[in-house]
Amino acid sequence: MQQADIDRLRTIAVPPQAHWIAGRATAEQAEPLPVISPIDGSEITTIPNGSARDVEIAVAIARSRFEDGAWSRAAPADRKKRMLRLADLIEQHALELAVLGVRDNGTEIAMAYKAEPLSAAQTFRYYAEAIDKVYGEIAPTPPGVLGLVHHEPLGVVGVIVPWNFPLMIGAWKIAPALAAGNSVVVKPSELASLSLLKLAELATAAGLPDGVLNVVTGTGRVAGEALARHMDVDCIAFTGSGGVGRQLMKASAESNLKRVHLELGGKSPNIVFADAPDLDRAANVAASGIFRNSGQVCVAGSRLLVEASIYDRFMDKLKAATARLRVGDPLDLSSDIGAVCGADQLARNLRFVDGATREGATLVTGGERILQNTGGYYMAPTIFCDVTPGMQLAREEVFGPVLAVMRFKDADEAIRLANATDYGLAAAVWTSSLSRAHRMVREIRAGVVHVNAYGGTDITVPLGGFKQSGFGRDKSLHALDKYSDLKAAWIQL
Questions:
Q1: Active site includes 108?
Q2: Strand order in 426-430's β-sheet?
């Protein structure tokens, strides 16, 4: 990846976009939505403002294609071959996809390149390879009876994807749904749709039958609601806010009781004990764990818990690590942190700063908008100390580069503070004690607990949360269960 190649791709005009339905771009809407780049606040293109009718057309096409069996009843080896071809095409277009996505949502390019196209290619390859390796079951029946358990695709899967990592998170849902034999209708965030529209185009080029993968852009209020309430959608897979997750469950209850898989927000604790094996590394990882992608990461370590005996020393290391991070143009390889996704998100972040100050937290660094002369949306990495569990900053997800720091005296208090939240998505523990590490993994209520690390898990392990972080599980072979039905056959011999 060279800066010259990035600079060349950033100047390419993006034509007005259209839905991708039945293997082709459809007509554009009369009043499309502008796509505003957070890099400089400029309009780079438009996307269709999808209607309920657009969703109806996409679902009907997906259902028709499911019923005709071109994909759902294709030989596993055939589905595998086409999905592997799609993975290859994603890799071939990786830099193009990454730059397009960064222009759309502002993630720093070094992170976006790995986390978006390269991760998506790995995900499609993983589930392609799983297609012909997942078996049914033979039940332990009495003599004279054969009991079989079949795995069958659900039908039409609706996928609703957020704006922070649309290609990576989209692949986590689309790839296993396709591997299981389903047809898919994707509704990306209206703030970041471009890379998923390109993905659908590549899927058609890879040989997926027309109508197996469709993308309808637009707002959640209209297009998302129509997909959630559609009587012919069998499943909704969603990553996003708890408020929208509740609306999706309500829509399911008021329509056809479709399955709803929710991966929601987090307020994840990053816990540093005095016996951490490397305090410098722990400080560097703590900074990147909250400030990468401007804090717009669902598993971000947004609550830092530090043992009292090393608190002052560790805070000095954390401040130094934060000061080394460069916020700037996300398409510049020298930038460590890119832009906040948009004006609304930036305003929300700054409201949390104001609220934390009013409640008595101490601002250590940051807390302000920067680089306003660019026209883009940038925020300084922000650290608050003297945060208490009852403060808004300790309880609510900011989804921005704002870190809440607390101190603790022993493992019991660390566990109590870690679990003092409505969320339970991720956590981390830094310690040299094997017994303490196992205890923390066992007692912290979170879907993934890192030890002497933060992040870095791959496609082989599941990601999902406890409590109000939802109950969906992306990644790993377990994700296939979300998109399959179990059918029992009881055969009298």
A1: no
A2: 362-365, 382-385, 402-408, 303-307, 269-272, 426-430, 448-451
